[in-house]
Each structure stands twice: as C-alpha cells, then as structure tokens.
Specification:
By secondary structure, the protein is α+β, with helices and mostly antiparallel strands. Helices cover 41% and strands 17% of the residues. It has a single domain (2-114), classed as Alpha-Beta Plaits, CATH 3.30.70. This is Immunity protein 51 of polymorphic toxin system.
Length: 115
Amino acid sequence: MSPTASNDLLPFRMVEHANSTSLILTTFDQGADVFEAYGYDAGGYAWQGVAQTLIQLRAPHLASQVKFDSESSMFTAYGAAPAALVELAHLMREAMTTRAVLENALSQVTPEQMD
C-alpha cells in the first residue's frame, strides 16, 4: 500500500490497496469553529457525517461507490472507484473552505451520522 497526495487533494491522502482505494483525512483544523458552533468536535466521525450529507445533497451517484470506516482521529472513505473518492475529496474541500457549504451540511446532518 502506498500513500499518495497531490496538491488538488490536500489535506487528503489517497492510499491504494489491492482491490480498493482509501481517502484519508487526519487534520481537522479547517472548519473546526463551524463544527463547534453546531455542538460537534471536528474529527473523523464528524467529517464522515458531513461527507454522507454532502453525498445525499449534492452527489447521490456516489452513495453506491463510497463506503466509510472512520475513527475519531481519522476520516476514511474507501471504494473500488478512485474517481469517486476524488470527487468526494473535492466536495469536502469545498466544505472546508466555504463556511456556507459546511453550515448547510451540518444543519442537515443527523445525530446518527455524527457517531
């Protein structure tokens, strides 16, 4: 398994496995104040909830292609289609850099998605 990163995916890393690829995030500074305003800690589970909500709202075609295996200290999405993970990374980067996008996702996330 070899981690790869490119400037267009930072702060995410892509890790290729034999039959799948993982999208990983381990730094949670971006948007932390927005999470806090909604009563959440910005960590792996919280970003997973945002990712699931972004998929529901803006990219439902990714729902069957992306699975999640996050922990509190690491967001992890994985699947067989690297292009789907790249698309998810771009959606999440928009949420990280555009407060309104993150607020919209957090206003629609369910508590179950944040655990």
